[in-house]
TrEMBL record:
Pathway(s) this gene product operates in, as recorded in its UniProt entry: Lipid metabolism; Glycerolipid metabolism; triacylglycerol biosynthesis
Record SUPFAM superfamilies: CoA-dependent acyltransferases
Gene Ontology molecular functions: diacylglycerol O-acyltransferase activity
Keywords for this protein: Acyltransferase, Glycerol metabolism, Lipid biosynthesis, Lipid metabolism, Transferase
Name of the protein in its database record: Diacylglycerol O-acyltransferase
Organism, scientific name: Streptomyces finlayi
């Protein structure tokens, strides 16, 4: 996905240089509703003691570092051309204190209180007229514990880009930030009326794009379950909680897995660490469904996002995503067979590539004109249930030790948004020898999220026991 700039569109906003939202970014912007905010999040927990910077000092530090990140000054404005389009523009009245706030929590059970509050804060959509992000400094009323909650709109960044933006608050990244960021000069079209040769080339390109869109669209339709859009009984294998009506409420629950255990299973069974984690999610859902008295009559489908960013690809902004669709083998009682099924399923996905299956809907959105994104996003959001039952995403973090104001980062739990018709999103990140699992659920549909988080840890422990013999 390339970044486009246009002086013509900049003039229509009246705010200087503008960067058009790419089609997928625009789709995420229009997918949002009050009950379904489309922001990513992360809850970072920090250590410290009585001598560490206090809450007000942390608030000042966070505000200064966030204000120094250029992308966090951008707001969305409508443009005249293309019709239905929007652009990122630098907010002329930007005030970082509108975005960074402090909340005091009791020291007793601080981590649990911070986790509970994070879920509640994730319910609230970001203000549309401001740069779409927020950060909260959560501090204990005594002692040295603190946390930071980050919310970034999905239109602003995908998971990898969100990490790159959010990492700017840490001591190690902020201290290495260059004085001046490299800028890209706007491209001015040579002519509004291309010559005959260029016109033929453009027409050929458009026909190729149409063919690509039709191919991707057909693949999505084949993989989708259109009958789930009708008021019919749910297909077997989908827990009632995962297909409940949305309430607009959110709850975060967390689990921390030992990365050495994940690699121990991987070395014994083959595949990738991500295969192991997907098998752990399947095992956790199986345990959880069984405890809820929901028979596993079939396998729910997971949407597994795939980044299309290339290593060293530069500062390409916005979303660069596709996804794979994977049946989670919750009906299989043997944990090793479950892992083998996940490994084989992901191998088939990778062999077919990211432009096949329901997961390719992101690629389809990336080919649509602006007016189609604006008109079609609500319909696409309602169709999520026809494509998948649960989102499972991995968010890579820097491998180096990080700190904020000298306070060491202890854990970071990523949070993914819930699509319309979805009740659970699972996000995983690796840091400090642990895999931190953030489970964002509709609070009314999944009131027992703590138990599901416990099942995640138990599912990995089961795999470790089996491979040890």
């Amino acid at each position: 996905m390339t970044t486009e700039t246009s002086t013509e569109n900049a003039e229509s906003t009246g705010t200087g240089a503008a960067e058009l939202l790419a089609p997928l970014d625009l789709a995420f912007w229009h997918l949002e509703s009050t009950e379904h905010p489309m922001h990513l999040g992360a809850l970072a927990l920090f250590g410290g003691d009585e001598d560490s910077p206090d809450g007000e000092e942390l608030l000042d530090l966070l505000a200064a570092r966030a204000a120094a990140i250029p992308r966090l000054r951008l707001a969305v404005r409508n443009v005249w051309l293309p019709f239905g389009g929007s652009a990122w523009v630098t907010a002329q009245d930007f005030d970082v204190r509108r975005h960074v706030r402090r909340i005091l929590l009791p020291a007793d059970g601080f981590a649990a209180e911070a986790t509970l509050l994070a879920g509640e804060l994730m319910e609230r959509p970001l203000a549309r007229g401001l740069p779409p992000w927020e950060m909260y400094v959560l501090t204990a009323d005594r002692g040295g514990e603190c946390a930071v909650l980050v919310k970034l709109h999905h239109a602003l960044a995908d998971g990898m880009r969100a990490v790159a933006i959010g990492a700017g608050i840490f001591d190690q990244i902020a201290g290495a930030r260059p004085v001046r960021a490299r800028t890209t000069r706007p491209k001015v079209p040579a002519s509004r009326f291309p010559g005959p040769g260029r016109a033929v080339g453009l027409a050929r390109d458009r026909l190729g794009e149409v063919g690509q869109v039709l191919g991707i669209g057909a693949s999505v339709v084949r993989a989708g379950r259109l009958h789930t859009l009708l008021p019919l009984p749910l297909p077997g294998g989908v827990p009632d909680a995962l297909a409940a009506q949305s309430s607009g409420t959110r709850r975060l629950t967390t689990a921390a897995l030992d990365l050495d255990d994940v690699h121990r299973v991987r070395r014994a069974c083959g595949g990738t660490a991500n295969d192991v984690l997907l098998a752990v999610v399947a095992g956790a859902l199986r345990r959880w469904m069984g405890e809820r008295g929901e028979p596993a009559g079939g396998d729910p489908r997971a949407l597994v996002p795939v980044s299309r960013r290339r290593p060293g690809g530069g500062a390409t902004t916005g979303n660069r995503l596709s996804a794979y669709l994977l049946s989670l083998p919750v009906t299989e009682p043997d944990p090793l067979v479950r892992l083998a099924a996940v490994r084989d399923g992901m191998a088939r996905n990778k062999a077919a590539g990211p432009s096949r299956g329901a997961g390719a809907v992101a690629l389809l959105a990336d080919q649509l004109p602006a007016f189609a994104s604006k008109l079609g996003a609500p319909l696409a959001g309602s169709a999520a249930r026809a494509l998948f039952d649960v989102l499972v995403t991995s968010v890579p973090l820097p491998r180096t030790a990080l700190s904020l104001g000298g306070r060491p980062l202890r854990a970071v739990y990523p949070m993914a948004p819930l699509a319309r018709g979805q009740s659970l999103a699972v996000a995983l990140s690796t840091y400090g020898g642990k895999v931190h699992v953030g489970l964002v659920a509709d609070a009314k549909a999944v009131p027992d999220g703590d138990r599901l988080a416990g099942c995640v840890a138990e599912a990995l422990a089961e795999l470790v026991r089996v491979v040890r013999g």
